[in-house]
Amino acid sequence: MLAVALSLGYFMYLFMGAMMFQLLEKQAEANSRDKFQLAKLGFLQNYTCLDAGAIEQFVQIIMEAWDKGLNPKGNATNPSNWDFSNSFFFAGTVITTIGYGNLYPSTMAGQVFCVFYALFGIPLNVAFLNQVGKGLNSHLIALGRCMQEPEGSGVMKVAMMGLFLTTGSLLFLVFPPMIFSYVEGWSYGEGFYFAFITLSTIGFGDYVLGTDPSKHYISIYRSLAALWIIFGLAWLALVFNLGAEMVEKLIHLKMHKTHVIEEERSVRKTEERTVQRRV
Q1: Which of 33, 55, 248, 268 has a CA-to-CA distance to 151 between 20 and 30 Å?
Q2: pTM of the complete model beyond 0.90
Q3: Closest by CA position to 259, among listed 247, 267, 248
Q4: What's the count of helices (H) and strands (E) in the chain, helices before strands?
Q5: 247 contacts 105 by C-beta, under 8 angstroms
């Protein structure tokens, strides 16, 4: 019954998400497409020496450069995407399975190495995050110990849970977007969106640190960001695990209540039948 309830809720959640994303994003996409087509037509009208085929070919070149991690707004003097800091950041996105998609190995040797690097790195990352999570539980706020003590005060458990969520939220989701907003020129909302999408390993790649060619970043900027990602992943994974446990407990509680109600109804019906027979 629990598996059926979880499966039903899972697919209903997916269905609801698909409807909401379609409602929120489809019209904006259509507007952007129309705006782009108007801009392209206006460009052709202003530069009559160019034809539509040349424009399409140039757009294709820009798209290929973007797919390879090259920003079309930059020039040949831009820093390499594969210096040590950027390579360290990329290695972190591989073993944490974030995979922004804005940068990837283009050589055959790099692709083969990436496969084997991820093959051994992902289990190592999982083991490391488990250890970090245990440290967060036992040394920072002792959440695990409080949750395992059945005789513990309910108020204490709630307080420790609140401390865990508040501290982690400040360190990984509230303060970092302020830094990203200052360095990258994003709004705070965009920085918060990037932080959550990154730490949840969704990694769309629409926002990535240190990719603006017009900005000068310190050499260790992305390396520090990789460390933030690693420890933030451990914290958010604990939050997700706690949320999953709460959902399962709620489902068990609901099923238990339903079972108790059904038993009470069955007992009442049996008693009523017994009384009727006696009468």
Answers
A1: 248
A2: no
A3: 267
A4: 9, 0
A5: no
